[in-house]
Amino acid sequence: MGDSKKNKIKRYFFVDMENVHRDGLKGVEDLTSKDCVRIYYSNPLENVPMYIHKQIVSSKARFEYIQVDMPIKNAADCMILFDLQAIAGENEHAEFFIISKDSDFDRPIVDFCEKKFKVKKLPEISGKENKQKEAEVREFIDKHFNDIEISGDREEIIAQTVRAIVHGKTRSQVNNSLMKIYDHDSIKMIFNEIKPLIKDLPGK
After folding, report:
1. For the ranges 9-13, 45-49, 117-121, 132-136, the one whose mean pLDDT is highest
2. How do residues 73-111 score in pLDDT, each as one tens digit?
3. How many whole angstroms from its chain centre is CA 42?
4. Is 129 left (phi over 0), alpha (psi -120 to 50) or beta?
5. pTM score of the predicted model
6. How does DSSP assign the chain, residue by residue?
């Protein structure tokens, strides 16, 4: 990545795939051209479902895949911290997010922050941590979508619907996300069913 491209990147996400697995990639569909996602993995990404691969392909963000093949303990952690240090040194005004639940990152993150770098740890790219809300939305959908015919992989589509509602910041954002999931004939009925879930969001 050239210097000019690095300077355009405002946020870097360092994904520890061995720790967070596919859940760490939640939120890739909301990234912009000013984001860069670096995915660190040691095993093939066979457990990443096709809809996430599609989100990655259609995303405006830059994606880089780093295979970790060093035969040492916590090799991915070491590579992430090494790369973060190098990139932060060249783009000190960017924000840096380590996508992991590993507590081994906590102390290095404090050190980075003391050096005035903006570094945080998140369990997933979206930054959403409210699992209770996700569970409540899923329960509501399971109850109200029983009679709705869904073409395709029902479980996958329901999971995408839950994420669209939980991660949406406005009604329009939720609606736009759902329009990418459901066909034209179903969308009006879907909108009517989820109104109670998005009634407190701003917008029409």
Report:
1. 9-13
2. 889 999 999 999 999 999 989 999 999 988 899 889 888
3. 20
4. alpha
5. 0.61
6. --HHHHHH--EEEEEEHHHHGGGGGTTGGG--TTEEEEEEESS-STTS-HHHHHHHHH-SSEEEEEE----STTHHHHHHHHHHHHHHHH-TTSEEEEE---GGGHHHHHHHHHTT-EEEEESSTT----HHHHHHHHHHHHHHSTT----S-HHHHHHHHHHHHHH-SSHHHHHHHHHTTS-HHHHHHHHHHHHHHHTTSS--
